[in-house]
Amino acid sequence: MSNYFSLYRTQSSDFITRYIHHISQTKNQSAVKKLHAHLLTTGLLILSPHFHAKLILSYTKCLPQHNLQTLTNFFKCMKPKSELPFNVLISDFCRNGFSFLALKTLSFMHSSGVPIDTYALCSSLTAASSIKDVGFGRKIHAHVVKSGWCSSVFVGSALIDLYAKSLVIGDADQVFDEMPLRNTVCANALLSGYGDAKLWTEGVELIRKMPALSLEYDHFTLSAALRACAGLAAIELGRQVHGYLIRSVYDVGSDVFLLSSLIEMYGKCGLVAKAQKVFNFDGKGEGKRDVVMWTSLLGVYGRNGYYKEVLELFKDMLMEGISPDGVAFVTVISACAHTGQLQLGMEYFESMELKFSLKPGPEHYSCLVDLLCRAGELGKAWKLVDEMLNKGHSSCTVPMWGALLNACKDQGDLESGKLAAQRALELNPHNDGIYVLLSNLYARFGMWQEINHLRELMKEKGLRKDVGYSRIEVTN
């Protein structure tokens, strides 16, 4: 009889779990309330505490976000000394995009004396990282130190990830250095932060130190190494990493991200032919090239001025049956602008929604405006922007206004150029490039007094045009 009852409970629990998931997806608040009442009257809510977490998540999806009163009322009904349902809840909140509520759950656990384990700490640090709440993350860090969880490699990795993603690199460094035990995941989290902060030299130094720290390289480490080589234009070091890949990574041709990193590294170092060889090498497999590979090579061609090759490769991509993504369309529309192919660029832009169900973003509209301006269709470009403004479109960006300003400079349209500069500076008052373009427009009309005024304004705002530079690699 007890076995029958246990089997019944298991089957009933599985059904209710599936039903909760269904009503959560449909956001049916009435169904959630009816199920809640059923679980209370049958006693299943007491027998299966994990239903608490599932019900709270369902209510969260149905009610307005950050409804803390509902959350608090549910917490009071849960067992205050059991951390399991709270851990499940924090994890569910993180996975479903309710990071704020995940952090509130941890706060309730702490204030109610519920034990906080590594599971709750790691999930909460992930939530803080996703919304870049460094302040709350520091509070968790302090609790970690006081409660003795510093020796946990999982908590340490989560702390490094929080500080790295928030670009608080000094604190990420300190956590890594103070960890008694480290693994490759910890190093990769720090490498990711170095990459986001463009601290390429520090990234290379850490990669070189890893063998001495008994840390092995994995695919993410090697991808970060290639990214650092690209940032430093360190082609010889990049070749060494490439050689290491061939020797140590089994079936390197199947790893799309590593190959994409290789293509981008060679492309950023100006070795377009090498990038193309990597792409062609991958193509020798059984059709393994996907949209990531094609988009990487498109980007290499575009950055190095091979615009005709961009258009040819894009046509090959479509013939292979690969559906392009938004990044690919940015590159190809820009290539049309640089080669003067107005009609083709318009056709590609329109095909985004019609053929590939891609909604154009701000970057696509910026490329379209630039396409029209470069083709001498300044009137059509302004008409497009006016239509976007009248519709309340949010895609009017600084690059778009910059393209209009540059076209006005080339065609000698002073008033329209001033308006474009004004709109761009409303979006970003500290964009020095707009000031330079406006100064060039004034210079065309001999308006030296206005140019002096612009220079004074830039000095007041502490703006200075970045000086161009080139990198070369010096070898023995």
What would you say about this model in short?
With 476 residues, the chain is mainly alpha-helical. Helix content is 74%, strand content 0%.
Description:
With 476 residues, the protein is an all-alpha fold. It has 27 helices and no strands. Helix 12 packs antiparallel against helix 13. The longest helix has 25 residues. The protein is globular, with a radius of gyration of 28 Å.
Assign a percent range to the helix content: over 70%
Average pLDDT metric: 84
Quote the beta fraction.
under 5%
Please tell me what the overall shape is: globular
Assign the structural class, choosing from mainly alpha, mainly beta, alpha/beta, alpha+beta, or little secondary structure: mainly alpha
Q: What kind of oligomer do you see?
A: single chain
Main sheet?
none
Distance between the amino and carboxyl termini: 82 Å
Number of helices: 27
Order of helix and strand elements from N to C terminus? HHHHHHHHHHHHHHHHHHHHHHHHHHH
Number of strands: 0
- Over all CA atoms, what is the radius of gyration? 28 Å
Low-confidence stretches: 1-11
Note the topology:
Blueprint: H1 2-26, H2 29-42, H3 44-47, H4 50-62, H5 68-77, H6 84-95, H7 99-111, H8 118-130, H9 134-147, H10 153-165, H11 169-178, H12 184-196, H13 200-209, H14 219-232, H15 235-248, H16 256-268, H17 272-283, H18 291-303, H19 307-319, H20 326-339, H21 342-356, H22 362-374, H23 378-390, H24 398-411, H25 414-427, H26 432-444, H27 448-461
Task: Output the keywords.
disordered N terminus
